[in-house]
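Pectate lyase superfamily protein domain-containing protein
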Amino acid sequence: MLLLCCDEDTWTWPLVAPLPSYGRGRERPGGRYMSFIHGDGLRDVVITGENGTIDGQGGIWWNMWRQGNLQFTRPNLVEFMNSRGIIISNVIFKNSPFWNIHPVYCSNVVIRYVTILAPTDSPNTDGIDPDSSSNVCIEDSFISTGDDLVAVKSGWDEYGIAYGRPSSHITIRRVTGSSPFAGIAVGSETSGGVEHVLAENIVIYNSGIGVNIKTNIGRGGFIKNITVSQVFMENVRTGIKITGDTGDHPDNQFNPNALPYVKGVTLKNIWGVKVQKAGSIQGLKNAPFTNICLSKINLHGMTGPRSPPWKCSDVSGAAIEVSPSPCAQLSSPQQSGSCANHF
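Structure:
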């Protein structure tokens, strides 16, 4: 798709409606600029090549965003909606204006052998964001962008609650990359619910957070049955972060009593070096995070084997063979059942 006019001040770009589970554009109210590659209601789609490059030429969009000159939300590089049977492989994606690959309301999606590149200061250039989608496999890929490498989502506050479509059965494996934000993320838009996520054999370096699970008051929904295993991280500010007070709201109409629940999160076999802070798990006072299992986790600091201690609140679960020692809420022997089914 090409720009439809000839100079930066006057060009126009096709618009599409806001996603119903978001109620507006992610960045701006109203519609959204159409993605460079966009499909709705498709079946059996293949995007592949011999590592050829699709360049979104995002620099102009990033500059306009920084300058506050955009009326609508920036376009993704690839977005499929209400589609199934999608394969994306053996392609290099670079310089997306916004999120790189965004399957939303989709099923049976395979993304493999891709490389996704954007400068570390490029705003909101998430790598792959499965959103209210099911049966998604992301594997054998390298991602280095300005935002989360992989972020599982399912809608935003009252709009996502009303739409009610979760993300489920998401597999992420053999992914390597770096980001100033998170390597593997769930949220913060999780109002339709996120469940049955497996991330394994992940390498994260030069990043802000290794594993980040995030939601907020007003989100509603749930995050449950999440397993992250076999992770190596190096030069990361925070190894593990699970929080209930992050992310913004689409408007002021969200219900402050719509509290998310987070249950059944297992993080195991994780090794980190040059990790500035081991972890933080901050539940909500009226919706504590439960059945959190940390197992066989070693996160070493910048100059030696000890990192700053964990910070926790409103959380229950168990921790087995975790260094540095986790917070007391995760070390009670009677809570060891939280990890009983994960060995």
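The two ends are 50 Å apart (CA to CA).
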